[in-house]
């Protein structure tokens, strides 16, 4: 039985400061480091054949902390540009509260939660999903079909797009899908990659 574990990175310094992060490369906060260790503890007993993260520091560091456990120290680790967070364009580096005061909360909610609407100069969730799913189908799905267990550490919007694809969620449903920092979602598949079980840890 194939296993896919999706993990959002731990809290970053930008999450802590309530900043639109996107492609800004920021470190984990002290709380984020602790969250990554908690993820490793929650995943104790899982066996992985390979692990992936985006190329951004907050995801790489979260994965490094997880695979530092002796049980996973020898698994192949890969970093992929396609798993990077959604590009937030002109909003990157801006405080979310200040942006809401300037443009209105309804507009900010649409930029953040909509499937098709992109923030100014940035990517829509649909565009983010397209690159993440292309990578998933090319690199991860073949391993799952072979019965392997795969760990992926990425970002809130990358994972929203992947979960929408895997779970066949509608654009309305994905608007309400919230993935917390250090959130864990476990999928178990049959040989045809039909989902047998979804578990949130």
TrEMBL record:
It comes from Hymenobacter frigidus. InterPro entries: His_Pase_superF_clade-1, His_PPase_superfam, PG/BPGM_mutase_AS, Phosphogly_mut1. It catalyses: (2R)-2-phosphoglycerate = (2R)-3-phosphoglycerate. CDD domains: HP_PGM_like. Pathway: Carbohydrate degradation; glycolysis; pyruvate from D-glyceraldehyde 3-phosphate: step 3/5. Belongs to the phosphoglycerate mutase family. BPG-dependent PGAM subfamily. Keywords: Gluconeogenesis, Glycolysis, Isomerase. The gene is gpmA2. This is 2,3-bisphosphoglycerate-dependent phosphoglycerate mutase. Catalyzes the interconversion of 2-phosphoglycerate and 3-phosphoglycerate.
């Amino acid at each position: 039985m194939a296993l896919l574990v999706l993990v959002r990175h731990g809290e970053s310094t930008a999450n802590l400061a309530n900043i639109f992060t996107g492609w800004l490369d920021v470190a984990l906060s002290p709380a984020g480091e602790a969250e990554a260790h908690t993820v490793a503890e929650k995943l104790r007993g899982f066996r992985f054949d390979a692990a992936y993260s985006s190329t951004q520091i907050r995801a790489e560091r979260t994965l490094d902390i997880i695979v530092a456990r002796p049980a996973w120290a020898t698994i192949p680790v890969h970093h992929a540009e396609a798993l990077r967070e959604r590009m937030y364009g002109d909003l990157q580096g801006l405080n979310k509260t200040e942006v809401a005061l300037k443009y209105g909360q309804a507009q900010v909610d649409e930029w953040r939660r909509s499937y098709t609407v992109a923030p100014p100069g940035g990517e829509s969730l649909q565009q983010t999903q397209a690159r993440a799913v292309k990578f998933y189908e090319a690199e991860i799905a073949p391993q799952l079909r072979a019965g392997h267990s795969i760990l992926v550490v990425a970002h809130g919007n990358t994972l929203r797009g992947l979960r929408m694809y895997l779970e066949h969620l509608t654009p309305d449903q994905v608007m309400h899908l919230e993935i917390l920092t250090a959130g864990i979602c476990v999928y178990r598949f049959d040989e045809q990659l039909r989902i047998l079980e979804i578990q949130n840890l």
